[in-house]
Design a protein that fits this description.
CATH topology: Transcription Regulator spoIIAA
Strand content: 25-35%
Number of domains: 1
Largest sheet: 5 strands, mixed
CATH class: Alpha Beta
Low-confidence stretches: none
Order of helices and strands: EEHEHEHE
CATH superfamily: STAS domain
Structural class: alpha/beta
Number of strands: 5
Strand order of the largest sheet: 1-2-3-4-5
Mean pLDDT: 87
Helix content: 25-40%
Length: 119
């Protein structure tokens, strides 16, 4: 078990949340806290970067869906980028992949532009 690491980068009305380690029943609430913090600074578009995520179970997917619901309340979006491994598999199996603005193994923003070019 690897502790969840969360780093946040603000870009205008977007927040990029980079996850590392394990997103599971023990750590999903930390993602909830990060989403609340993003909303407090005016975030309307959340980009979750899963490049360094080592593990994600159904509880982790629930945390991602809660993030989607929180952003939907402010007419915002959630995109998942650098999705790979077990997270990709769980999203595909559960059908949750359709719940997000974008789910990709490439680094892109909520509106489809390359993540590194988002203002």
């Amino acid at each position: 078990m690897t502790a969840l690491a969360i780093s946040m980068t603000h870009r205008q009305d977007r927040v990029i949340v980079a996850l590392g380690g394990d997103l599971d029943i023990a750590s999903g609430l930390y993602l909830d806290d990060a989403v609340r913090a993003a909303l407090c600074v005016g975030c309307r578009h959340l980009v979750v970067d899963a490049a360094d995520l080592a593990f994600c179970d159904s509880h982790g997917v629930e945390a991602l869906l809660r993030a989607r619901d929180a952003l939907a309340e402010v007419h915002g979006t959630v995109a998942l980028v650098n999705v790979h491994g077990l997270l990709r598999r769980v999203l595909d199996i559960t059908g949750a992949v359709a719940s997000f603005t974008a789910v990709t193994d490439a680094p892109v923003s909520c509106d489809g532009r390359p993540l590194w070019k988002v203002p």
